[in-house]
Design goal:
Helix content is 28%, strand content 24%. The protein has five helices and 13 strands. It is found in: Cell inner membrane. Pfam families: Kdo.
């Protein structure tokens, strides 16, 4: 078995990179300015900190780790550094590598990096292969999309049965392409003995709040049918 990833750590930062990209990878890949016109900002769900990259190796997605809500107004990209193993981009990269190797529908992780800022803070970034022609689940909100929502429920069940906890399960992190994918596993983890537990119900309840927020403009009966279709797929 080959290496899972290549690791390089220096005094002020470091990166992990997939072996298949080791020869061509540069740390500049984590900077959208490096790519120039080949980088397009993500308009939906990117918090202004994600870009589609049209690279020679194929279409990629670059994401800078950023805080949302009130903390994001003051410490948008700053995270407290404790140790290398806890760098958020590294944690997500390692989780994605494991899920991807198990055949679960997640983006292929390409590289993860961080840069120290002073003695306390760091900035983190992650690169992954872009899922082609993907659209968020919230874009599929008509009566003709009930089957898509059922497939989304079945997809979530696959992850739950594998003990995978998604910390921010919402409509924007469920993508529809050739199949259903889950994305953005920041703070995600695999829960030991994950066949049961309240965390699954909490995950589903979080998603329902997202549905009510993003699809609140829909007729209540349609929104309910979409949600029931998702639950039907989950139970199936």
């Amino acid at each position: 078995m080959g290496k899972e990833y290549i690791k390089h750590i220096g005094a002020t930062g470091g990166y992990l990179v997939a072996p298949s990209f080791e020869a061509s990878f540069e740390e500049g890949w984590f900077d959208p300015d490096f790519w120039g016109d080949l980088a397009d900002p993500v308009s939906k769900g990117g918090r202004g900190a994600a870009w589609f990259i049209h690279a020679a190796a194929g279409d990629l997605l670059l994401r800078h780790f950023c805080r949302g809500g009130l903390p994001g107004r003051f410490l948008r990209r700053d995270y407290v550094y404790t140790r290398v193993s806890q760098v958020r981009s590294f944690v997500e990269f390692r989780l994605l590598r494991k899920l991807y190797s198990q055949g679960l529908p997640v983006p292929e992780p390409i590289a993860a990096g961080y840069q120290r800022h002073g003695s306390v803070f760091y900035h983190a970034s992650i690169l992954m292969r872009r899922i082609p022609d993907a659209t968020p689940l919230s874009d599929h909100a008509g009566f003709s999309d009930l089957g898509v929502w059922q497939d989304a429920g079945a997809c979530i069940r696959r992850f739950h049965d594998a003990g995978v906890y998604h910390a921010d399960l919402n409509c924007m992190n469920i993508l529809v392409s050739d199949q259903i994918y889950l994305i953005d596993f920041d703070r995600g983890r695999i829960i030991s003995g994950g066949k049961g537990g309240d965390w699954k119900k909490a995950n589903i309840n979080r998603l329902k709040r997202s549905v009510e927020k993003l699809l609140g403009h829909l007729d209540a009966s349609l929104r309910e049918q979409l949600w029931e279709s998702l639950l039907s797929g989950y139970r199936r």
